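User:
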Amino acid sequence: MSKEERRKKIDIKALVSIIPPASSLAKEKPRRERRIRVRTSENVKREFAKINPKLAEILGIKNKLEIVVARKKKLKLTVILDESIGENEVWCNAEQLREEGIADNSIATVRAA
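Assistant: Predicted structure:
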């Protein structure tokens, strides 16, 4: 190789050092779903779900939420905000959950619909 070719050669390590690691990119995207307990209640009407307002704000839930159990059973329900509900729980109609095959105290993924 001539001296000119050596000077023109690009330093790969210097180029790679400006690329941010994948772990730093993952932090930019907020999580918009959470695995929480689904509880049954006779006081909740069909097609509705009670959720804590803090959890709804974290997940970006405004009017409707989606509950997914074991990637098989999906429910889209209208949200009722209630301070008395725990932050790691969603309460739904007991009869509707039974019909869908979802047991009380099941763990499900909850996100905005």
